[in-house]
Amino acid sequence: MACKNCSKKPVWEFTNQTKLCRSGFVRYFEKKMLKIVRKYGMRNSKLVKKDDLRGKIINNVMGKIVTNKGKKLEIENLNDYSVRILEVLMSKDIKKFDCLLPNYKPLYFFTDAEILLYAKIKNIKGKIVRKMTGKEKKIDDFLIHLENGNKDIRHNVVNSLLRLG
To answer: Which of these, 25, 60, 138, 159, could form a disulfide with 20 (CB 3.0-4.6 Å)?
Structure first.
């Protein structure tokens, strides 16, 4: 089956079986990031100064629209926050939920797979650098195991937090 917008070979498939080609995926990624920027008021923020792949992508997509004043953007994405949310739930320290909301986090709703595919298509070189504690690694392994049955498990975890807050 071909891309939903054209007849080209798809590179990305959503859980609802909608498929996108390379150009369709780039449009989807950039449009989604810019929507997050508008919704959570990130236009008055500073670009990221990181060699991490996620920082390069943020600067690539948002370089023309941010004012480079105010609070610095964060590079963490959906994979990071789904682990942190479950960690906070297990520790029962609900006060920590405030720092897990999507403010100044343009990659909050993007998985590692989406970020890596966007970087590959746009020819952006780099690696995702992540430092996890033992507890975070166990939670991440658990989520990876759950992803075999439900590809949207990380989205579900984050969306549950957003419904609470």
So the answer is: 25
